[in-house]
Specification:
The chain is of the alpha+beta class and 134 residues long. It has a domain of 78 residues: Alpha-Beta Plaits, CATH 3.30.70.60. The chain has four helices and four strands, in the order ααβαββαβ. It has a four-stranded antiparallel beta sheet with strand order 2-3-1-4, with helices on one face. A hairpin with a 2-residue loop joins strand 2 and strand 3. The longest helix has 25 residues. It is rod-shaped, with a radius of gyration of 34 Å. This is Elongation factor 1-delta. Keywords: Elongation factor, Protein biosynthesis. One of its GO terms (cellular component) is eukaryotic translation elongation factor 1 complex.
Amino acid sequence: AAAEEDEDDDIDLFGSDDEEEDQEAAKVREERLRQYAEKKAKKPGLIAKSSILLDVKPWDDETDMAKMEECVRSIHMDGLVWGASKLVPVGYGIKKLQIQCVVEDEKVGTDILEEEITKFEDYVSLGMGCGKDL
């Protein structure tokens, strides 16, 4: 009687082939993973940006501030967008230009901006400052 029960356990009444299903499932899974990887590769990555507030100081109270701002805004780089600006009193009739910009961190840094702005020696004092907002 025990031998008959062992033989019944070996018989597959529904005729399923687990190995074939496993291979098909593996193929489907690999195809889906490949499609997902392709889709993810096409999606652009996260772009880190910073908002920077620059303080641009003139040589003296006779410096043409409109011309100085024009010079600063003439700087064009990939990943740089100029924003609002205002003149802020420093003292003794001198005002500094406070100007906002947004930069892509991978492309533009504060060092590059400072270097480019200080090239306008006729308008900009070398004591330029900046504050980086995150």
